[in-house]
Specification:
Shape: globular
Order of helices and strands: HEHEHEEEEEHHH
Structural class: alpha/beta
Helix content: 25-40%
Low-confidence stretches: 94-99
Radius of gyration: 20 Å
Distance between the termini: 37 Å
Strand content: 5-15%
Largest sheet: 4 strands, parallel
Mean pLDDT: 91
């Protein structure tokens, strides 16, 4: 939380814009801690969205999630929150009830490159040079930086520096990183010509993850 507050103050001081903070909404011990933490973030100047990742994969209780949603709306405003879930999720029936009128986004289920489920598609992914999940600086908890928010960014092959590095150093590392150049310049789809794969995948992140692990 200390880090988050420092980032928030820095963004405000540089007159930048917030996007959103993603959370599973289940980190608080009691309502007092929940309210105090969210209020502190609000007071620091954060005015972006709060994205709630809520589905059966997180094991959250309905009661706690409704409390989290209510508290966010009371502090940040009625339109400050949205819910994101993975396809096939059977929870969130209450999100359709009249008293909870908030955006609900359903994301497709994705699989790591070494999971057989990733290779059961009838067609290949559409090449977009990572314009979807890419073109950002994603900071991992250990300080490593990757240039995308797709789950493949956990592979060291996509690391382009540490949070302690200068922006110039990070950009230089990215320009010299073979995997990054493949994703953003050459295109991942061209790699299909040189290697046999377990099947076809329509998920570019699954393909990227596979290449990072097997290149």
């Amino acid at each position: 939380m200390d880090f988050l507050l420092e980032v928030t103050r820095a963004v405000v001081s540089h007159d930048l814009l917030f996007d959103q903070i993603m959370t599973n909404g289940d980190w608080w011990r009691d309502e007092a801690e929940l309210r105090n933490t969210l209020q502190t973030l609000y007071d620091a100047g954060y005015d972006g969205k709060i994205g709630l990742s809520w589905d059966e994969y997180h094991g959250q209780s309905e009661e706690r999630m409704l409390t989290f949603i209510k508290t966010v709306q009371e502090i940040f405003g009625e339109e400050a929150i949205n819910i994101q879930r993975v396809a096939s999720s059977g929870v969130l029936r209450q999100a359709q009830e009249p008293h909870i009128d908030i955006p609900l986004y359903t994301l497709p289920r994705t699989y790591p490159g070494d999971d057989p489920q990733a290779w059961k598609s009838k067609k290949w992914f559409k090449e977009d040079y990572c314009e979807g999940p890419g073109n950002i600086l994603y900071v991992h908890a250990d300080g490593n930086i990757a240039p995308c928010c797709g789950f493949a960014n956990e592979n060291p092959a996509l690391f382009i520096g540490k949070i302690t590095d200068s922006y110039e150093t990070i950009m230089k590392n990215a320009a010299q990183n073979e995997m990054v150049q493949l994703c953003f310049t050459k295109g991942l789809s061209r790699y299909r010509r040189f290697k046999k794969f377990p099947g076809k995948t329509s998920d570019i992140c699954s393909f990227c993850d596979y290449i990072c692990k097997n290149k």
